[in-house]
């Protein structure tokens, strides 16, 4: 299978997360992926301290799995924003995808959204080691669930 058959030539993915407080020292953590499988990963916190920025190369199968998750979870039909206004503080996750001439951005703040979270998990699964985007909704079970 060639790259052209597995993903759109204009595929661009940007997954990020940050505190809702602009002065939080963590800053924004980001993974960007292009159609050729090139990945840029920002500096990020880990259990072992701060990890430096890095680049990474996805193979065709890994990129195909990520794009399949985007399609399987109908990313382009998700609302632009899901938020739990009752939670003060916390963090957000943002996913921007361009494919086949379409660009769509979705942001979740302090809330679970099953399809969004499944795509984020699919992206994280293909990243090396501790180089994943972590946001509260992925691990705080008390967070509510947003419908599509």
The helix count comes to 3
Shape label:
globular
Distance between the termini: 33 Å
Question: What's the gyration radius in Å?
Answer: 15 Å
The strand line-up of the biggest sheet is 6-3-2-1-8-9-7
Overall number of strands: 9
pLDDT < 50 stretches: none
Structural class: alpha+beta
What are the secondary-structure elements, in order, as H or E? Answer: HEEEEEEHEEEH
Tell me roughly what share of residues is in helical segments.
Answer: 10-25%
Mean pLDDT: 91
Q: Could you describe the largest sheet, including whether it forms a barrel?
A: 7 strands, mixed
Beta-strand percent range: 25-35%
Question: How would you summarize the topology of this molecule?
Answer:
Layout: H1 3-6, E1 12-19, E2 29-34, E3 38-41, E4 44-46, E5 49-51, E6 54-57, H2 60-72, E7 81-83, E8 91-99, E9 102-109, H3 114-125
Parallel strand pairs: 7-9
Antiparallel strand pairs: 1-2, 1-8, 2-3, 3-6, 4-5, 8-9
Helix pairs in contact: 2-3
Tell me what the structure shows.
It is a single chain. The protein is an alpha+beta fold and 148 residues long. The chain is built from three helices and nine strands; from the N terminus they run H-E-E-E-E-E-E-H-E-E-E-H. A seven-stranded mixed β-sheet has the order 6-3-2-1-8-9-7, covered by helices on one side. A two-stranded antiparallel ribbon has the order 4-5. A hairpin with a 2-residue loop joins strand 8 (91-99) and strand 9 (102-109). Helix 2 (60-72) runs antiparallel to helix 3. It is globular and about 40 Å long. The model has no long low-confidence stretch (mean pLDDT 91).
